[in-house]
Amino acid sequence: RPQSFELVADTNSIPAVCESTDLEALNKVADNHDMIIRVAVAVDTGMHRIGIKPEDAVEFIKRVESYPNLAVDGFFSHMSNADAADQSHAHGQAQKFHTMVDEIRAFRPDADYRFSLANSAGLLSVKDSLFTDARPGIIQYGIMPSLDVPNRLGLKPVLSLHSEVVHVQHLEAGEGIGYGSTYVTPEPMTIATIPVGYADGYPRSLSNRGTVLIQGTRCPVVGRICMDQFMVAVPNTITVKPGDKVVLLGSQGHESISALEIAALASTIPYEIFCGFSDRVPR
């Protein structure tokens, strides 16, 4: 977008461009900064989000080169089904990209263009998606894109989410917990309060479904998750007090809670769980 072109120049970034990009405005910004801006051309091989058609790549090179302050750095496309059990669509995208790469190299045999198709799933399970560059995303956190993608690199999760108990109470049977009293204690129970809520990015959809780890023991979420707090039921096998460490995502003792587990319970994907953690969560 034209409003971001100054940032591109100031940071010496390589912007993604396609036929909808205002190349004239980008060239003007580059000229004003007395620089050459190198661009990465987005190619639509089947995602149908942004990008030029693969067969238009050579003509697009000519278009970019018609601007004196612009140059092509490379080409990339995004895979839409590389994490699926059926990889026929992924291989189809790879074939389209291969054909385009061959045409570009025939047109500019001496050009040192970069070509990138593989995402996290492509790197692990679609060999023909590997070109000069790859763009791993979620596997940088040690998380597989889906259950259909094998962990061939032996990656381990590196992100965890921790909190601590701030309140403990003992309730008799028949007590409603949280907004709407969606959970009613079936018997005398110990309830612990955790100072995390949906404003922090812990999904409200985990209400009465999720679990946390306290002293290496799974404690189920009871009642609706609030904006800033939620409650869990403490098994009678452990004694909990304020200040005890709580693991919402990660490992404690012999137990662990994965991003895939949380995502499945919240009817979403690990990507959304990670993106949902708000700025108020200390890093």
Any overview of this molecule?
The chain is an alpha+beta fold and 283 residues long. The protein is 23% helix and 23% strand. It contains 7 helices and 14 strands. It has helices at residues 5-11, 23-32, 57-65, 88-107, 120-125, 259-265, 270-276, and strands spanning 16-17, 37-43, 70-77, 114-116, 161-164, 167-171, 176-177, 183-184, 189-194, 211-214, 217-222, 230-234, 245-252, 255-257. Strands 5, 6, 9, 10, 11, 12, 13 and 14 form an 8-stranded antiparallel sheet that branches. Strands 1-2-3-4 form a 4-stranded parallel sheet. It has a two-stranded antiparallel sheet with strand order 7-8. α6 (259-265) crosses α7 (270-276). The mean pLDDT is 96.
The largest sheet is: 8 strands, antiparallel
Shape summary: elongated
The secondary-structure class comes to: alpha+beta
Please provide the count of β strands: 14
Radius of gyration: 25 Å
The fraction of residues in strands falls at 15-25%
Order of helices and strands: HEHEHEHEHEEEEEEEEEEHH
Helix content: 10-25%
Low-confidence stretches: none
Q: What do the pLDDT scores average to?
A: 96
